[in-house]
């Protein structure tokens, strides 16, 4: 099969389009013929070597963390999916590889593709929607009537998180630049802050939840817009000791996480708010709940650009530039 392969870690290095064998299917996996693959910053960060401690991949490696396609083969222990099913997934860590014609995916990480969506739209969903779900529903327990601040509302995570938070009955504040104000309002944001002209700290206070996806300075300010008892969930770091335990990291990695997050955890404690780091995980049952919301039209996909498969490196460069409005997808079929 054709695949984009990473041979050497390196900043902004290119993936090589190569002919490789189709990966062997495990008993609890289905083989998906890839129709479309979502592009995530995680692909760029792994390529650059930034995730070597958390995700120690052996090279060569096929990148790609989002897939929509058709089941063409099933393992002997697969019960809920059959050949011909249209599906989407965020493949598990250490089993990624959707920048390819075929990718094996664990049955437990799979969902049927929402019927009303194209393959490209379905490929744009899994990683960012699971991130929004795991941050807002699982970690923060966001409830009706609460106030949530979602940073970067026009990005891949932000566009889904705004819609999910509104569905949960929360009031949503978000940041974006002036060009995307209409987009985030259309998605349901109640308070929109143009981060280039306004400081969110001057506008927001007493938030119940913050979804942090930006730098350390933004993180420090975000703690100050929470009410006592509020929760900050960060998807851009720093990782906390609980995360180290969750991934079974060696002691020196756990120590590094403890040190990296000690400042923010101390500040959070002083302000009587919760701090936690989220690194999203593949999860088929959560994905099935999310795809139901897409099927029902409660959440709409936001796809900025679709690149042909051959232009996967260009698609990654576009994502890295940091201006995407929603998601970027590569199309194979
Ligand atoms: N831990 C996890 O599990 C996890 C999962 C998913 C993503 N992430 C991380 O979360 C971050 C966001 O991911 P993403 O996929 O949503 O990114 P993305 O789609 O690439 O974000 C692009 C968007 O960010 C907006 N933006 C850029 N700088 C901004 C700022 N200072 N304030 C507000 N908005 C800003 C841009 O809007 P303008 O063009 O208007 O500036 C653009 O629409 C990344 O660091 C990613 O690696 C982590």
Radius of gyration: 19 Å
Helicity range of the residues?
A: 25-40%
- Average pLDDT number: 97
DSSP, total strands: 16
Largest sheet: 7 strands, mixed
Outline of the structure:
The chain is 32% helix and 26% strand.
Can you tell me about this structure?
With 333 residues, the protein is an alpha/beta fold. It contains eleven helices and 16 strands. It has helices at 41-47, 119-123, 126-139, 156-167, 181-187, 200-203, 216-224, 241-246, 251-270, 284-295, 312-320, and strands at residues 2-6, 16-19, 29-39, 61-62, 67-74, 86-89, 102-106, 110-112, 147-150, 171-176, 191-194, 207-212, 226-234, 274-277, 303-308, 327-331. The strands form three sheets. Strands 3, 5, 6, 7, 8, 15 and 16 form a seven-stranded mixed beta sheet that branches. Helix 11 links the parallel strand 15 and strand 16. Helix 3 packs across helix 4. The model has no long low-confidence stretch (mean pLDDT 97). The site of NADP nicotinamide-adenine-dinucleotide phosphate has 30 residues, from helix 1, helix 3, helix 4 and strand 10.
């Amino acid at each position: 099969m054709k695949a984009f392969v990473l041979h050497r870690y390196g900043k902004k290095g290119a993936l090589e389009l190569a002919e490789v064998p189709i990966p062997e299917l495990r008993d609890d996996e289905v083989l998906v013929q890839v129709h479309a693959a979502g592009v995530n910053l995680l692909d760029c960060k792994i390529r650059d070597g930034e995730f070597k401690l958390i995700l120690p991949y052996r090279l060569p490696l096929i990148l790609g963390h989002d897939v929509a396609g058709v089941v063409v083969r099933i393992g002997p222990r697969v019960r809920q999916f059959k050949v011909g099913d249209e599906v989407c997934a965020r493949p598990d860590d250490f089993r990624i590889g959707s920048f390819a014609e075929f990718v094996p995916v664990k049955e437990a990480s799979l969902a049927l593709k929402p019927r009303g969506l194209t393959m490209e739209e379905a490929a744009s969903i899994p990683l960012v929607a699971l991130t929004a779900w795991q941050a807002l529903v699982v970690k923060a327990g966001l409830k009706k009537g609460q106030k949530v601040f979602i940073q970067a509302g026009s990005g891949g995570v932000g566009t889904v998180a705004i819609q999910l938070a509104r569905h949960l009955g929360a009031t949503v504040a978000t940041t974006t630049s002036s060009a995307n104000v209409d987009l985030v309002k259309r998605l349901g944001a109640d308070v929109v802050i143009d981060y280039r002209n306004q400081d969110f700290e001057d506008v927001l206070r007493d938030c119940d939840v913050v979804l942090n996806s930006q730098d350390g300075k933004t993180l420090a300010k975000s703690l100050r817009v929470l009410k006592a008892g509020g929760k900050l969930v960060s998807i851009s770091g720093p990782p906390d000791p609980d995360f180290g335990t969750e991934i079974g990291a060696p002691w020196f990695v756990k120590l590094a996480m403890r040190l990296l997050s000690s400042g923010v955890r101390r500040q959070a404690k002083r302000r009587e708010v919760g701090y936690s780091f989220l690194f999203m995980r593949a999860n088929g049952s959560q994905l099935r709940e999310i795809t139901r919301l897409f099927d029902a039209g409660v959440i709409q996909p936001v796809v900025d650009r679709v690149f042909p498969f051959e232009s996967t490196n260009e698609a990654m460069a576009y994502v890295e530039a940091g201006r995407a409005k929603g998601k970027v997808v590569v199309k194979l079929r």
